[in-house]
Amino acid sequence: MRAVGLGKQFFGKWGVSGLDFHLKPGRLTALLGPNGAGKTTSMRLLAGFFRANQGYMEVEGKVYQTLPKGIREKIAYLPENGPVYRDLSVQESLWFFAKAKGIPSQQINRALTRMMEELDLGDVRNKLVATLSKGFRQRLALASTLLGDPDYLFLDEPSYGLDPIQIGQVHKIIKNLSKDKTVLISTHSLSEVEEICDDVIILSEGRMLANNSVEELKRKDKVFIQTNQDYDTFLHLLKSAGFSELKLISKSADSFFRYEVSLNDKKIEELYLLCSENKILVRELQESEESLKKIFKEITNK
Asked: Pfam families, alphabetically (predicted)?
């Protein structure tokens, strides 16, 4: 599924605009942003609840501004605080959603058994939803969303309000689901993105500010290197080869210097080759990685 220049207006004001990204099966993607960034609006656009005022979606090779029924039936959307009926048992609740989704009666028992096994709801199948912990209610909401085996799964703040143990349980479920489905979650939790997501789309005030893999986003254009070259000699060599910045970090007792080098458009392999050609001893060479929290602040200015 691909969003191309996607946007939605409300009363003449853009809720989101210019969204360009590609959701891939087998990769868990996060919409990351503060409250009011446009995460829920983006999800509802992708799920077919809203008609786009700008751009289009490409799904399975076809272009749409409004998703047809056949595509919408392949999409499951779980809103924040997903709907559960407190006066029903777990099994009754799942049965209700299965009927609402049009699953044939002869297939419902098998579908319910599968969902209760996958989300570990078997021990509470006869309990009233009202008596369940929030973690179990969230699992039930996920199970209800998964009935019908959707290809695309959009989860709005799936771990909001859960305790750390419950968050871990939900994260494990979502990560497993993303192995063979296209899964998008919205979150304002940086730790959640770092822990379970493969790709991240950063939103702020309805605009997309970043779209990359978590690994690439965290990888900065700087490396650490430890050599036997003094600062002035090494700086001259680097600048002659097109490297722009060199920062001395420390000097060891055996006269090895640890530097931070800015790569700019260069590659780490080019730095190693430069040292090798000039017979410079290299004791350490590694990429610098910054926390997602710091990067998020830099990108959003928040």
From this structure: ABC_tran (PF00005)
